[in-house]
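Progress report, Aim 2. The chain analyzed during this reporting quarter is listed below.
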Amino acid sequence: MRIAVCDDDERELSRIQKLIAEYQASRNKDLECHYFTNSTDFICELRGGEYDLVLMDVLMPGISGIQAAQEIRTLDKNVKLIFVSASPEFAVESYNVGAYHYLLKPVDTNSFFTLLDKIAGELSAQAEQGFVLRSRDGIVQIAFAKLAYVEVINKTVFFHLTDGTVYEVTATLADFEGTLLSRPEFLKTHRSYLVNLSHIQSIDINCVTMKSGADIPVSRQRRSQVQDAYMHFLHQADTGSSALSQSKRPDGPWQILLVDDNSADRTIWADILKSHGCIVQLADNGEDALRLAADGFFDCVLLDVMMPGEDGFSICERLNSLTQMPIIFLSCLTEPEKQMEGFWAGGIDYITKDTPAELFWTKVETRIRLAKSERTQLRYGPLLIDLTKRRVLVDDKELLLTPIEFDILWRLSEHTGHVFTPEEIYGMIWGSQPWDGGQLVQMHMSRLRRKLEKACAEHHFIEAVWGQGYRFAP
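Predicted structure tokens for the chain:
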């Protein structure tokens, strides 16, 4: 883990340094740490992508921690930001710039270690979002998100990263096409080039210009495909950002499950969520929560701890075995030990009920947004869709699907309950190709449904809606 710490108080800086050293010794982890006494020096040295975690004081001379975070976000949208302050008054502002967490000074050792454990686990999972390359510089791990484009010259393949790094491998482009082209963000523009659509600046008939300034040729026979793919990518990105800014899923408002046995508390928090455009379903016990989660999709579960029957920690573990929905604890229990227990149970955050309404919403909104951007697997009961490896498991047994069948299942599963017409499905999978009247969709859908029903007879997963189309209904 690569960590930067920025604090103008040298005593606090020394204390954080000591805590990190203790954590490194206790966990036997390899940490690379850099320390700064002012945000100006830190920002001047920052290129973007060199840190996994930044610990930032809020109040500093010159550029404050919040202002520095805004600069950091222009260079690196993925780095995890933790603000450290003696006062809670800047918490709302911190989450508005994408804070991962907000710590109060003096930092509690156990809470800090728990937080670092959680981040280390997430970084380990993110590391799987890439591939290992045996280059001339040795064995390196390349993240898909940081790979701008790939080119082959003679018998050498060059991997160009967003930070300017280039790795060379003696191989052919075909050796890597399967891995890269299985992901929606990569596209082949020429027999010698693969590009990452998210790092394109502009395109014209004959070439693609990357954000780095590099011009990538586009072969004549691929012009239409490249333009269509890029326009579709931009449309998806615009739709996603618009949905996030309005607190909505692509097919409607965010769906939130609120679980609390106290009716007064349920009303208070539900009213806040509804005022921000969310649809809220209520449950007053763990068993009802499990039933609702099994029957539908929720963007987030807000879970009380103290309830009749099983407590929230136990319910959280059962929910995590059932679904990938992010779970946030919402409790009147404020003790650090209880909050740590919430993280150990699988919660992604712990909000105490004395939290102001504005901060409560900001934390919920941020957590949903982060969970959506980091999701690599979709689970619906016995069905697991692995987006990274592009494979499907039913009851832990792999279900062999064609690439088109996988894409259909994936797209439909992201919009549980929504009825897609054959034309809409055709557009999602085959893009701008001329409409064939629905024969392709019917053929692939029939095969996909038979495979799913054979693998798990008690679940249909995909239903045909007479006269309308198909919907994913686990």
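The chain has a mean pLDDT of 83. The radius of gyration is 24 Å. These observations will guide the mutagenesis work planned for the next reporting period.
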